[in-house]
Amino acid sequence: xxxxxxxxxxxxxxxxxxxxxxxxxxxxxxxxxxxxxxxxxxxxxxxxxxxxxxxxxxxxxxxxxxxxxxxxxxxxxxxxxxxxxxxxxxxxxxxxxxxxxxxxxxxxxxxxxxxxxxxxxxxxxxxxxxxxxxxxxxxxxxxxxxxxxxxxxxxxxxxxxxxxxxxxxxxxxxxxxxxxxxxxxxxxxxxxxxxxxxxxxxxxxxxxxxxxxxxxxxxxxxxxxxxxxxxxxxxxxxxxxxxxxxxxxxxxxxxxxxxxxxxxxxxxxxxxxxxxxxxxxxxxxxxxxxxxxxxxxxxxxxxxxxxxxxxxxxxxxxxxxxxxxxxxxxxxxxxxxxxxxxxxxxxxxxxxxxxxxxxxxxxxxxxxxxxxxxxxxxxxxxxxxxxxxxxxxxxxxxxxxxxxxxxxxxxxxxxxxxxxxxxxxxxxxxxxxxxxxxxxxxxxxxxxxxxxxxxxxxxxxxxxxxxxxxxxxxxxxxxxxxxxxxxxxxxxxxxxxxxxxxxxxxxxxxxxxxxxxxxxxxxxxxxxxxxx
Length: 532
Ligand SMILES: *[C@@H]1O[C@H](CO)[C@@H](O)[C@H](O)[C@H]1NC(C)=O
Ligand SMILES: *[C@@H]1O[C@H](CO)[C@@H](O)[C@H](O)[C@H]1NC(C)=O
Ligand SMILES: *[C@@H]1O[C@H](CO)[C@@H](O)[C@H](O)[C@H]1NC(C)=O
Known about the structure:
With about 525 residues, the chain is of the alpha/beta class. It is built from 19 helices and 13 strands. It holds the Pfam family UDPGT.
């Protein structure tokens, strides 16, 4: 199997070798947080293969740094808000999910969420202003002679720029709210009877009430996004282009959608020829650890280590929570490496070390690693799947709760509730995934599914990016569904026509029968008369 994979990778590399000799010129849309962490390895692979990569970077960003020494070119643009504005937005966002939400009813949650989506779009449009309304940047982009725009559409506007530059567009994303973008703009089929909506916390096995909930969940998000997102974006696009423009239609221009999930993690579902499922795009084999860290890891003996992080965006939690977590961790026999930026908790055990930053992937790939405590972001989950490490989830927001449900469903994880968690709950959860063999076995099974494919997800993503450049787009993969109205798509016009034909037929039949009956009655009457 290993040989087969190598051979197919070699064949692929050979196929592409002629192309990489005169590499393409790729423009990359700005993004943030884990989205940037995720796309970077793909860009590095593209550079390795001889392409030029230029990344648009806003002057204010938490993760993208235009002055960072790297192998990409950076095109820096100015934005009108400050780092503080941005931090306030993120604080607001996390505060809602981590502390406010549990005290709200559904309506309050919905309204507050609408407000957050609106605020997020406000910031996104200020970013977009920095590119599309800057003559300097637009001139640079036009003179850049790019062959392709690669974008994580979490920040909108890349489709507009791709059209202005007249170049193909490749999206990479994990999901959109209620899968609205994939379903409506990408035309990805998602029957609500067996494809659970992102963030619905459902699996693909649904009973009647769950299917009802899933259906409503899709509909609710469609309404929410129409009211808060699409109408604002439509206006913005129309203003820039000078003609009435549908932003969703612009989004549908994307040649390829690289979805960052795969069947080790997601439930089987129908998809289209221009949707590629490349979950685990950023995963790599583990590298050796820094010396002092390796020493600490080795000091764990047979008990091994537990790796703990709450993700790239959560920096601190309340002192109370930190103390609960620390005292839970102090009660397990493993050594713990905890990535945490807040103040050192009072209850921190001797077995736990706090780090500003940890080489998460290298730790997860370490033979001494027994479990991974995670907030349930897809990046971390995929690294754990890649290395076959069972997980304990403390999910907080966005897709995290549902990601953990996926892993739970496959028997590779348990999760604890962040709000109600006690020290003992965390301790017991870690002990469960380490001591009950099934968790490790299931994690290893997912790992072998993950690795057993003809080509690695990163190579697949790179292949389709190069494919799109070589063929100047991939419009031949575009389904005609994009050109249909909703009633044509569901064949309602055809059904209506057939219904009309059937009704007409029945009508005629009734008429003819009525006529026959009357006619034969009359004849019978006549014969009777004659007989008389
Ligand atoms: C961004 O702002 C700085 C300082 O005001 C200015 O020097 C620079 O030219 C601006 N960059 C662009 C691309 O407009
Ligand atoms: C459907 O499944 C949910 C979750 O398992 C359960 O709570 C609910 O009672 C079920 N409903 C019906 C009608 O079986
Ligand atoms: C996190 O830290 C910031 C600044 O140090 C503080 O303002 C904020 O309240 C803290 N958040 C929590 C949840 O403790």
